[in-house]
């Protein structure tokens, strides 16, 4: 059985911890034979990761996790096997980073207005030191004794049922479209991003779809007509029922099935590389994925 993990992040991501070298060392300890580095809107560490993997006999598939939008809904899109010299993907981070930073300031304003919390943006940005400031801000906010009695925070304070990782869960639970904390960030269009991945010789796979497409006919129609190649059916963000649902959906529509931990390190401490809720052998899915990847190239 080929143990694999097709979704992880390095220090080149705004929320990743480990260097490519450290990721390879972790993959060795986990007994993984095939992995993919899929940093957020960034391919800076991929060539280094491939070289290091080759040195120890670990196959590293080039990848990127693209921030995209379907209307007001954020959808993360994985691009596998893309040309690493492609101008669009080399410059993607610069385009999305500015929008994300501006959105952070607006989100702080919304949090202050709704909950009366004090947020020192300048201090938060300094402490984040170029990484995603949302994690730093949420950690301070949920650990502050002054705010732990706020009803909306009870699940995210230390020990709460959604506290690991609190910044990620709070964002997905409380800050999506329809909430008064929602901030529209005009990320690249989902359909255009699928096309960009294909133009760069890659495969487009929807990352951790969790509730976005789950039994949602309107969104499913967009997904199935978009030209995507597959779905990351098994993910740490899915319930067991969602894992099975997306596996069956992919099989029904002849889409590729991938599995990924979304390993980040300290920002998502409960997530371990190589673990994503799959309790059976997924080698057949991996081989089909690699065959399609070879054909795309």
TrEMBL record:
Pfam families: PHP (PF02811)
N-terminal signal peptide: none
Domain annotation Polymerase/histidinol phosphatase N-terminal: ranges: 4-70
Classification via InterPro entries: PHP_dom, PHP_domain, Pol/His_phosphatase_N, Pol/histidinol_Pase-like
SUPFAM superfamilies noted in UniProt: PHP domain-like
GO MF terms held by the record: 5'-3' DNA exonuclease activity; 5'-3' RNA exonuclease activity
Protein name: PHP domain-containing protein
UniProt lineage: Bacteria, Bacillati, Bacillota, Erysipelotrichia, Erysipelotrichales
